[in-house]
Design brief:
This protein is flat. It is 83% helix and 0% strand. With 296 residues, the chain is mostly helical. It folds into 2 domains: 114 residues, no CATH class; 105 residues, Up-down Bundle (Receptor-associated Protein).
Length: 296
């Protein structure tokens, strides 16, 4: 059995053992106790693998909490908010899952080091320890792109709704009611803030701060300025949508311009060497009898 296979089998055995121990010790009331104690929010729909990883990370959670400190934990909570709280993760449950991946990496890395592959073991530990941060960064980026892509169409529909005679808040409620995208979720959260008595300026500012999306920030800024200056809301919304589309088109052109050199580099590094090898091989095979005569 190869060292890699031995490490994977050992890691799988450890995960199964921890999961079985967790099930045997469970009373079925842990989630209720946690919710009553005011700790982490209950995550009802976690996959079985996620529950196992969270159980593995429980031992390292306190160490990670002290390692991060209040400032880094606040920054992590802001990143989770920008990601839309995927899987209902809080900063505490995120660090617990990160600790679980770190434990798995340490086990596999240690076994690989014992099997004579310390460098590969170190790589596995680094990858497992940093996996949650990479995953969160990808979720934030995907959510930002989705909001930026949907915002112009959302503003067009909102402008038509406002032109029909509805005020801003009822118009936002009607347009976002059937929108299950990240943008619709953020608009509904802003509307909830308004229902709880938060001022419109504070609610819109919170929307801008939760989402690091330039086009959404421009929308909020224009909305606040229109409210202060008394600009017609429908006209302002249509102008904002048009400006966002122009900026998106400009970004797309810049991205396409940057992609040209990258494509040329890939072609140069892959196709050209293969073509040269094919030409040289054909020349050698065609002149093989002459080479044999010269070499005797």
């Amino acid at each position: 059995m190869t060292p890699m296979l031995m490490a994977l089998v050992a890691a799988a055995s450890l995960v199964v053992a921890v999961a079985g121990y967790h099930v045997m010790r469970s009373t079925g009331l842990e989630s209720v106790a946690a919710s009553l104690a005011g700790t982490d929010a209950v995550q009802e729909h976690r996959p079985a693998l996620a529950r196992v990883i969270d159980a593995l990370g429980l031992g390292l959670l306190r160490f990670l909490l002290s390692l991060y400190g209040p400032r880094r934990r606040a920054a992590l909570d802001a990143r989770l908010a920008r990601a839309g709280r995927p899987e209902g993760l809080t900063e505490r449950s995120f660090l617990r899952r990160k600790a679980g991946f770190t434990v798995i990496g340490l086990v596999i890395g240690g076994l690989m080091a014992l099997a004579g592959q310390p460098f590969l073991g170190f790589v596995v530990v680094v990858l497992c320890a940093g996996w949650m941060d990479v995953w969160l960064r990808s979720v934030v980026g995907r959510r930002r792109r989705d909001i930026a892509r949907r915002l112009p169409d959302f503003l067009d529909v909102l402008a038509v709704t406002v032109s029909a005679g509805l005020a801003l808040q009822p118009a936002l409620e009607r347009v976002s009611a059937t929108d299950d995208s990240a943008l619709g979720q953020e608009i509904r959260r802003t509307l909830n803030d308004l229902r709880y008595g938060i001022s419109r300026r504070a609610a819109l500012t919170g929307l801008r701060e939760r989402n690091d999306v330039p086009s959404l920030s421009a929308f909020v800024t224009a909305m606040l300025q229109a409210e202060e200056l008394g600009t017609p809301l429908a006209q302002a919304l249509m102008e904002i949508a048009e400006e966002i589309r122009r900026e998106s088109a400009q970004v797309a052109r810049q991205t396409a311009a940057k992609a040209g050199p990258k494509v040329s580099l890939v072609v140069t590094m892959t196709i050209v060497p293969g073509a040269m090898l094919l030409i040289i091989s054909a020349m050698v095979l065609a002149n093989l009898p002459k080479f044999r005569g010269v070499l005797g």
